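Ticket #4471: structure output looks truncated?

Reporter: J.K.
Steps to reproduce: submitted the chain below (210 residues) through the standard prediction queue, then opened the result file.
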Amino acid sequence: MLLENKVPVIYGAGGPIGGAVARAFAREGARVFLAGRTLAKLDTVANEIRSTGGSASTIVVDATDEQAVDSCVDAVVEQAGSLDISFNLISYGDVQQPLTMLSAEDFLQPITTAMRTHFLTTRAAARHMIRCGSGVILAFGGSGPHTLPGLGGFKIALDALEELRRQWACELGQHGIRVVPSKRGMSPSPSRRASPCARRSPLRLSRRAC
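Returned output as attached by the reporter:
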């Protein structure tokens, strides 16, 4: 199996997309750790995975909380021995309305949430992955050349994420860590083409172990 013995932590795993990713990873042999704020939703996904013979553990964590994220990743590594994939799929709480109708708070909400959570989850994972010399950072969504009216700060948040991924890729590539955007129905982004750590499929992981 493609992900046999690999250890991913999936933030937002209680949601529809996060749950689907977790189930797919488990089917490929991964030992998945489901992270999110609502235990009941995480347990639902974990029980589905276990019912089909997969391995799943749950961790309640707010992915915008610095200490909680660091503790979450430390706990995963302590329990599993390594961390191979970090996948952030949390929602940003965006309000999608024309800009003229938004408050400053509603405009900034998705931007600040996206930046904070992706910085924290990537940093926490990278600190462990650097010691192993391998790993994959995945993030759902990304920037593109087009936008639509009424998206509020959401599209701007995606643009900011694209630049954050570029910076992480630049700094982590030398350590064997790939930073890969996951974009449905889109061609590879410039950050993926330019990144030394994003030239292969995100699921084709090194067999190197810590």
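Triage note (M.O.): checked the attachment and the full token line is present. Strands lie at 8-11, 31-36, 55-60, 85-88, 135-140, 177-182.
Status: closed, working as intended.
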